[in-house]
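thought: user wants a sequence for this fold. calling inverse folding tool.
action: design(structure=
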């Protein structure tokens, strides 16, 4: 169960399964209080890699209407505001007066930043609840999934797009080739397709196994995007390395006929992937062994802290946190509660482990001794916001890349 017959990017044959994580409920399927005693659907989460292009993937098993109501919003993280403001300036420069289309526009944070710069924008998103937040920011949103039919409709209504952008959405797409066919149809001949994604090499280097969950179907190498682009006569012309989300890349593709020469960084990163063993089976076997070691160490630390009579809570209720909690078997007997800045998650329970989620006010009210940082990709920001917790003797337990206790000073 839960195995792929081919790579969804380069279409290479049967990928190598290197980390079977067991059965998990969908990582964004948070539970209401009145449903907490009901069983949740669970799907096998087997992590595979294509040894021809370095794409890390899981099999697509989630029902297609799953994202009609969605709970992640980038606005919850202060880091994302500055990040999207910088990206908006790049997109506006690329587009000029042309149309900028953001696929998976979420709460409109990026496009509202583009609008402030005088950009001509359009968002696409299937989640009605999130689209309402975007519209309140005066962002025009087409409600629905993106595919060739949607692309045809948008082109007819709004004209072709000079820039198509998607940030942390491409990794949710099951049929990448159908998505790309839509991009090619909607994009002008000299337009640019901009992708922001976690970089699979960083995932490997930093033991970030929790970045994989059923809604995150793919973790991309640059080579996998190069090979995917070739199917559609599109060329990777530039890449920016980004610190966001534990190590990401911003990739620029153009139609090959008007692409011109790629910047040297493209060849450099492809060489880096090859030198890092991204097409070698042994790399992934070693990764699985490191994850087993992290599990052992973290559970031993939690057991020891509980034995000391300390109160432990979790900081953040991100999807990635649910992969870690479910795979390691960390539940409410260990973590009294989780806190999160996103009000959409308050008073819900985490999928699988069913840990209650509250606002960050609970830290001052309940005074935990230890906060297990599940949103580790925003740890610097969290530490800054929780100076009071540290000053009162509280400590953070950061699980990755290696479990570590962090106190004041």
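)
observation: tool returned 409 residues.
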């Amino acid at each position: 169960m839960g195995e792929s017959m081919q790579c969804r990017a380069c279409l290479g044959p049967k990928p190598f399964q290197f980390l079977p994580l067991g059965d998990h409920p969908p990582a964004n399927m948070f539970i209401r209080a009145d449903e907490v005693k009901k069983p949740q659907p669970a799907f096998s989460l087997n992590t595979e890699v294509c040894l021809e292009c370095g794409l890390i993937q899981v099999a697509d098993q989630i029902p297609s209407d799953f994202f009609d109501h969605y709970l992640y919003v980038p606005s919850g993280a202060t880091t994302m505001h500055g990040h999207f403001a910088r990206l908006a300036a790049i997109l506006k420069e690329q587009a000029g007066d042309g149309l900028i289309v953001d696929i998976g526009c979420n709460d409109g944070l990026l496009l509202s930043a583009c609008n402030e710069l005088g950009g001509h924008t359009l968002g696409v998103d299937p989640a009605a609840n999130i689209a309402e937040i975007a519209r309140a920011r005066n962002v025009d949103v087409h409600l629905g999934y993106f595919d060739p039919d949607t692309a045809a409709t948008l082109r007819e209504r709004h004209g072709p797009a000079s820039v198509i952008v998607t940030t942390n959405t491409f990794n949710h797409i099951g049929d990448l080739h159908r998505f790309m066919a839509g991009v090619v149809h909607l994009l002008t001949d000299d337009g640019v397709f901009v992708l922001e994604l976690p970089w699979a090499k960083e995932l490997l280097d930093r033991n970030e196994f929790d970045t994989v969950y059923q809604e995150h179907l793919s973790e991309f190498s640059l080579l996998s995007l190069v090979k995917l682009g070739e199917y559609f006569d599109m060329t990777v012309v530039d890449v920016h390395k980004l610190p966001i989300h534990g190590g990401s890349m911003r990739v620029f593709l153009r139609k090959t006929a008007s692409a011109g020469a790629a910047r040297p960084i493209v060849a450099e990163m492809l060489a880096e992937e090859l030198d890092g063993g991204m097409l070698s089976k042994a790399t992934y076997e070693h990764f699985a062994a490191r994850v087993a070691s992290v599990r052992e160490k973290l559970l031993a630390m939690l057991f020891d802290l509980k034995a000391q009579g300390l109160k432990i809570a979790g900081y953040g209720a991100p999807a990635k946190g649910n992969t870690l909690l479910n795979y390691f078997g960390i539940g409410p007997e260990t973590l009294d509660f989780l806190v999160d800045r996103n009000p959409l998650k308050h008073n819900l329970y985490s999928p699988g482990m069913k840990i209650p989620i509250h606002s960050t006010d609970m830290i001052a009210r309940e005074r935990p001794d230890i906060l297990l940082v599940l949103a580790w990709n925003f740890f610097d920001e969290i530490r800054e916001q929780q100076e009071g917790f540290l000053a009162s003797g509280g400590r953070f337990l950061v699980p990755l890349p290696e479990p570590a206790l962090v106190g004041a000073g």
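thought: summarizing for user.
answer: Here is the designed sequence. Residues 67-76 have pLDDT under 50 and may be disordered.
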